[in-house]
Amino acid sequence: MEIFRCNCDDLKEGxxxxxxxVIWKDGEVMNVVNNVCKHKGGRFGKPKGKxxxxxxxxxxxxxxxxxxxxxxxxxxxxxxxRQERLRTRIENGVLIFYGKLSIIELSITYSMYSPPQQVxxxxxxxxxxxx
Length: 131
Known about the structure:
Layout: E1 2-7, E2 14-18, E3 21-26, E4 29-34, E5 44-45, E6 57-60, E7 66-68, E8 73-76, E9 87-91, E10 94-98, E11 117-120, E12 126-129
Antiparallel strand pairs: 1-10, 2-3, 3-4, 5-6, 6-7, 7-8, 9-10, 11-12
């Protein structure tokens, strides 16, 4: 499923926050992740006190978890927890990236008379569920 297209020339070196995505550009290398922390679903931003976008670390707004965009691995807390990179490709100077549907936990009371339920995922995608 195609998610987004952007002109590579419009992306600056380092961190780029576009819609619900974080894009790390280092020359020809581009890593793209959903702007949702794995810990509690907070959004990423620049670490406090960092004026430059060249740094590759983003910080979760909820609990301060930090993610290295260069390697897509959490650096605080330390461990082997990784953030999933979205599939990307570049065509004629345009970055195209793809994503997957997230697995979400639902708590819906079943009734054969229940109308369809709308559920919004953390990435903003709206799902319509019919039970």
